[in-house]
Amino acid sequence: MPTQKDRNSSSTSLFLVIKLLNPLLHHFLNLLFYFFILCLGVVVGIIVHSSLEASFLPYYPTVQSISQLVLVTSPPPPTSSPLPQNYEIEMFLRPPKINIMHNMEDNELFWRASMDPKIPTRPRYISSSPYPFSRTPKVAFMFLTRGPLPLSPLWERFFRGYEGLFTIYIHTNPSYKESMPQGSVFHGRRIPSKASF
C-alpha cells in the first residue's frame, strides 16, 4: 500500500513534469499559431494575385480576331509548285516585300510586334550561334515627322551602300498624303497613324 510519502513524491514528480512541459507546450502553441497565420497569408495572397491578374491582363486578341486578321492580311493561296527544301530559312533570310500599310488597331499591332520569333536554339558546344545559318543584324530607323521628311537627301546619302542592313519606318501626320519618289529608300515605308489629342 502506498504511503503518504510515496503519494507526495508522485504528485511532486507530476508537478515537476507539468512545470517543465508548460514552457515547451506554450512555445509549440505559439509556433503552431504563427504557422497558421503564415498559411492564411499565403492563401489570401494567391487569391488576391489571381483576381488582380484576371482584371489587369494586357490585350490578347481572341481566336476570332486572329483568324479575321489572317483572312484580311493573308496573301493569295500559293500555286501547287513544290517548295525548296530549305524554304523556311529562305523566307527568314529574304522575306518577300510587303506593303506595310495595314488596317490593324494599335493593340493588335503591338501584340504582333511583341511576339518573339520561334527560332530553335542549338546547344552551345555545337555552335556559338543559336541560328542554323550565318546572319547579319539589321538596324531599324523610325522617323516621326509632321510632313515631308526633313533633310531627306542627307538621309538618302547616309543609307547609300548599306542596303539590306536597315529597316526604315516613317510615321507622319495622318493629313500628310505626299509620297516619296520610286527610287528612294523611303518609298513605301510610311506607316499609317491616327491623330491623338
TrEMBL record:
Chief localization: membrane
Annotated PANTHER family: CORE-2/I-BRANCHING BETA-1,6-N-ACETYLGLUCOSAMINYLTRANSFERASE FAMILY PROTEIN-RELATED, CORE-2_I-BRANCHING BETA-1,6-N-ACETYLGLUCOSAMINYLTRANSFERASE FAMILY PROTEIN
Subcellular compartments: Membrane
Gene Ontology, cellular component aspect: membrane
Membrane association type: Single-pass type II membrane protein
GO molecular function terms listed in the Swiss-Prot or TrEMBL record: glycosyltransferase activity
Membrane-spanning parts: 28-48
InterPro entries: BC10-like, Glyco_trans_14
Claim: Cytoplasm is one of the keywords in the record: no
Keyword Metal-binding: no
Keyword annotations: Glycoprotein, Glycosyltransferase, Membrane, Transferase, Transmembrane, Transmembrane helix
Protein name per the record: Uncharacterized protein
